[in-house]
Design brief:
A hairpin with a 3-residue loop joins β18 and β19 (about 265-270). The protein has 2 domains: about 5-185 and about 195-420 and about 455-480, 7 Propeller (Methylamine Dehydrogenase, Chain H); about 485-595 and about 635-960, Alkaline Phosphatase, subunit A (3-Layer(aba) Sandwich). The chain has 21 helices and 43 strands. The model is unreliable at about 1-25 and about 425-440 (pLDDT under 50). Helices cover about 20% and strands about 25% of the residues. It has a 5-stranded mixed sheet with strand order 38-39-33-40-41, with helices on both faces. Strands 3-32-31-30 form a 4-stranded antiparallel sheet. Strands 4-5-8-9 form a 4-stranded antiparallel sheet, with no helix packed on it. With about 950 residues, it is an alpha+beta fold.
């Protein structure tokens, strides 16, 4: 490898960022994210951004994503960077490449000259989950094997790279011996144990002598002790109180252990994320739990000082760092690390900074904290056991780890994401791709493949530089708005707060803007990639046309796992950010992000209630319930409220705290009741057209806060059901509220049928994507029509959003999506191109209802003021009947009149979709093979039509008539 200059490194790294059309032309200019915040990764003087390219022979330009950890060798000359995420691509030969990677960099310095690290080696690992640690001897390091339930050992080979640096190779893979994780049926025989979670090896801690390692078993709620000389596991300790002490049965503790810090050779500290504690373990031949230290927030990574008398803990959800006295094993202090107090002085700041990694300077006077949520590294001055943020350094998108050079003069930060930019066809180029030319030449278009990771290196800023960088971070994150308690919203929002008493919030699934509205006569749509045109989605088009066309709206989340958290809490926790990509790449993890944890409905605290609510517990009565399985109602993925309310940071929590009324229709439901059949699942709930009249419960909430506010007759996510029938259940209650004058202030409505699936078992003839999105389209139109004709028409606003945009192509960005605001005081017939996001919509609803902001993001966001017209009081809407639905069995009006759209022919029969996609799992959102699903969806809806060759992100608002005519659209 030849010598690469700093300029070449910088240009290569900036090429990473230049994929998205909305990015700044100048590397130092802010780059706007779909979260509403911005990044300036090149703002720090002399900073270098290096793409993490593993050098795949048949995919030379591929850059890995989701880098999560760094580790500097004891002598400071070698830096390791670990990926742990999606990283599933197909090369130009059609071969799948599914590895994670350890990137090895040389960090040798030359005097006082700053030299960026040089990549010397890339080591593939099948699976990982964040764990990365050196042996103190500097001759070997260790990587946790994630779902493979192993600890990989890499040792120096004695060979020397071209840079004069040592090289490493894998010398052992130590099995940890877990067959399954702790779950509903982990002890059950096949086939029932298929519902149990798999193991997940996470953080690794190494003793000071280098004799042993301790591995956190994330899904087994235990640790494994490994003899590093003998390369064998020697001990296992279950961290749950009731597992070792019967008197503590049913007491929560030790669950979801993530990180490990080993004190000398005698003691280990393990961060328990669900139970918000540090478990202190006495090591030895038979390890035991010595004590537990409660933490206000979710502890993740930890670092010991050189004397090992202080342990510093990064704490997500509370946005703090905790300090522990390791002699007394007592919590000494916890201090906020979001920003300097001069910038954010509030006592109870909204949450969302997501501190997730920390590193001590060699003199131990400074602590550096990576903050994924605010895209910064906090510089903390330490005073004994206390700390104070003195500055912030801007980074790339979602920094996951920070390390400090051995001389304290350089910082190394890994960023987990980058902006994806346009996605041509959202395909990955697998064996079916040759029939679509662009898929074979431009594979890997899925959003989690397009988000690329990078290593940022920079000299530690001086005092003056740090002040400027801190101001830049404050501007990137709009901290001035948070400091003032929010923007001055002006007369329009003041009027809405006075006039609007009710908000109806509809969340749908997974569509991009171009996929649905690219054929609209106005707006920045690309008609060449419209999969669901007006003939199939007439209400989507009419609502945009009659009210506002939001052609620059971005979903903040990439996929449903994070998207539902952004859509209900205006943020995602670090737990969610770390675990979602693994799950979507089939690298383990359960879908923990909508209330259930490891498929357990934690809304039910009492064992008896759980047994009745968990359908699989009753399959094997002789086992009985595991009384130590996730006791209590804590939800590991749930965000906290602004004042630290544990797991209560959702919009409904804010509404309840404000004394408002709420009603839930389909949000955060336990989907296990819809899986299988009555024969295989005793707690299976059958779909009913008339559930209330028939007394057939359809929904069991998975959130404790929603237990008493959920309509039990409104079915949750089930692709075999109909959104129109769910609408009818919503309308039944709406009519009662109208009659009684007690419509809730906030209604949460889920219409999920634009997700698609269950083609072989779908009811009412809704067995193709076209029919399913028409069903979804009509349900939305009917709800809007119902409100428009009701006594609440004058004081109710309807907000409609997709939770994410992962399942389609878009010529601007893989996050751009459809969104609607309908009702009084909404502009009519207008195109609004203001850049808005999921957070913008959340903030708008919060302001209108007088709620506190759910997160730091929403506290900093401006509401969607451009959407409204204070003089537009009157409105109406008549739902259009999609012509495709006339071939279904959903209820349609007998006299449709002008509402009936022309009868259209479905593009493919149900048998086609069942053949192509029938084998996928539609039991919960996104459980399927999403990249292949998207490819087949395009082929089925568009035939062999090639993707347009130009996906430059250009503005297509002008000359719409001529552009549409080019594609035969009038």
């Amino acid at each position: 490898m030849t010598h690469i200059t700093i300029r070449q490194y910088t240009l290569a790294a900036f090429a990473l960022l230049a994929t998205a059309p909305m990015l700044a032309q100048n590397p130092s200019d802010p780059i706007t994210l779909p979260t509403g915040f911005a990044i300036t990764p090149m703002a720090a003087p002399h900073s270098v951004l290096q793409p993490l390219n593993p050098g795949l022979a048949n995919l030379p330009n591929y850059v890995a994503g989701q880098a999560v950890a760094t580790a500097l060798s004891p002598d400071g000359t070698q830096l390791l960077v670990l990926t742990s995420g999606f990283n599933e691509v197909v090369d130009t030969q059609g071969k799948a490449q599914t590895n994670e990677y350890v990137f090895v960099f040389s960090t040798s310095t030359l005097g006082t000259t700053f030299i960026p690290p040089k990549q010397t080696q890339v080591l593939p690992v099948p699976n990982t989950f964040c764990g990365l640690a050196w042996n103190p001897n500097g001759q070997e390091f260790y990587v946790s094997g994630g779902v493979d339930d192993k600890m990989y050992v890499f040792a120096q080979t004695g060979r020397v790279s071209i840079f004069g640096a040592p090289t490493y190779s894998q010398v052992a893979a130590i099995a940890l011996g877990h067959k399954l994780g702790n779950g509903l049926l982990s002890n059950a025989p096949p086939p029932y144990n298929a519902q149990a979670p798999l193991p997940m090896a996470a953080g690794i801690g190494v003793s000071k002598s280098g004799a042993l390692a301790v591995v956190a078993n994330f899904f087994n709620d235990s640790i494994s002790v490994v003899d590093l000389k003998g390369r064998t596991k020697t001990a296992e300790l279950d961290l749950r109180p009731g597992a070792t002490d019967r008197t503590m049965t049913g007491v929560a503790g030790g669950e979801y252990p993530f990180w490990v810090a080993v004190h000398a050779d005698d003691k280990a500290y393990i961060s328990s994320q669900r139970d918000r504690e540090l478990v202190v373990v006495k090591l030895g031949a038979a390890p035991t739990v010595a004590t537990r230290i409660a933490i206000a927030g979710q502890p993740n990574r930890m670092v010991l000082n050189q004397a090992q008398d202080r342990l510093f803990v990064a704490v997500d959800n509370s946005d703090t760092v905790a300090v522990v006295d390791t002699g007394a094993d007592k919590l000494l202090d916890a201090f906020s690390v979001t920003a300097p107090r001069t910038i954010l002085p509030g006592a109870y700041l909204p949450k969302g900074a997501n501190p997730n990694s920390l590193a001590l300077s060699p003199d131990e006077k400074t602590l550096y904290v990576a903050e994924g949520g605010t895209n910064a590294v906090a510089v903390v001055s330490l005073f004994g056991s206390n700390g104070q943020v003195t500055g912030l350094i801007p980074t790339g998108w979602y920094p996951n780890s920070v390390s400090v050079s051995s001389d304290g003069k350089q910082l190394y930060v890994v960023n987990g994401k980058s902006l994806p930019g346009p996605n041509r066809g959202n395909c990955r180029g697998d064996v079916q791709a040759p029939s679509i030319p662009d898929c074979s030449s431009n594979p890997n278009q899925y959003v989690l493949q397009l988000e690329q990771a990078s290593l940022m290196s920079l000299p530690v800023p001086g005092v003056v530089e740090l002040a400027d960088l801190t101001d830049q971070v404050a501007r990137n994150n709009h901290f001035d708005a948070v400091e003032q308690g929010g923007f001055s919203f002006g007369p329009v929002m003041d009027l809405l707060r006075q006039r609007i008493q009710h908000v109806i919030y509809i969340i749908k699934e997974n569509r991009t803007y171009d996929q649905v509205l690219g054929d609209l006569e106005v707006g920045n749509g690309d008609p060449s990639i419209v999969e669901f045109p007006e003939a199939i989605t007439p209400n989507h088009h009419a609502l945009a046309r009659n009210f506002i066309t939001l052609d620059n709206f971005f979903d903040s989340g990439e996929v449903s796992g994070v998207g539902w958290n952004w859509s209900t809490a205006a943020r995602a926790t670090d737990y969610t950010e770390k675990t979602v990509p693994l799950n979507y790449a089939n690298r383990g993890m359960t879908y923990d992000w909508e209330g259930t944890n490891r498929n357990v409905d934690v809304a039910q605290a009492a064992v008896a209630d759980r047994v009745s609510a968990q359908p699989l517990l009753s399959l094997i009565p002789q086992l009985g319930p595991d009384l130590n399985l996730l006791p209590g109602t804590a939800d590991v993925a749930a965000p906290d409220g602004p004042a630290g309310e544990s797991g209560a940071g959702y919009i409904w929590d804010e509404a309840l705290r404000a004394g408002l009324t709420i009603r839930n229709y389909g949000f955060y439901i336990d989907l296990a009741h819809y899986q299988g059949s009555p024969a295989s699942n005793p707690s299976y709930i059958p779909i009913s057209k008339t559930p209330a009249a028939s007394g057939i419960t359809q929904a069991v909430p998975a959130k404790a806060a929603l237990l008493h506010y959920t309509d039990p007759y409104f079915r949750g996510f089930d692709q075999a059901n109909s959104d129109v029938y769910n609408y009818q259940e919503w309308a039944r209650e709406f009519d009662q509220f109208s009659a009684n004058g007690n419509l809730p202030n906030l209604s949460l409505v889920r219409f999920p049928h634009d997700h698609f699936g269950s083609f072989g078992s779908a009811l009412y003839g809704l067995n193709t994507p076209g029919l399913q999105i028409s069903d979804n389209d009509y349900a939305v139109g009917l709800l809007v029509q119902k409100v428009a004709a009701s006594p609440y028409a004058g004081n109710t606003l309807i907000f409609v959003i997709e939770d994410d945009a992962q399942d389609g192509p878009d010529h601007v960005d893989a996050h751009r999506s459809i969104a609607y605001v309908v009702g009084p005081y909404v502009k009519q017939g207008a195109v609004v191109s203001e850049r808005y996001t999921t957070v913008s919509m959340m903030r708008t609803m919060e302001v209108i209802l007088g709620l506190s902001p759910s997160s730091l993001y929403s506290a900093a966001a401006a509401p969607m003021t451009e959407v409204f017209d204070p003089y537009q009081e009157t409105w109406t809407y008549n739902a259009l009947v999609p012509g495709l639905l006339r071939s279904s069995q959903v209820p349609l009006p007998q006299a449709m009149g002008r509402r009936a759209q022309p009868l259209v022919r479905d593009r493919r029969p149900s048998s086609y979709w069942q053949k192509k996609l029938g084998g996928m799992d539609y039991s919960e959102e996104d459980k399927l093979d999403t990249p292949r699903f998207n490819l087949e969806l395009w082929k089925g809806m568009m035939g062999n039509k090639p993707y347009p060759t130009e996906r430059s992100g250009r503005d297509l608002r002008e000359n719409r008539k001529e552009l549409l005519a080019k594609y035969g659209i009038r």
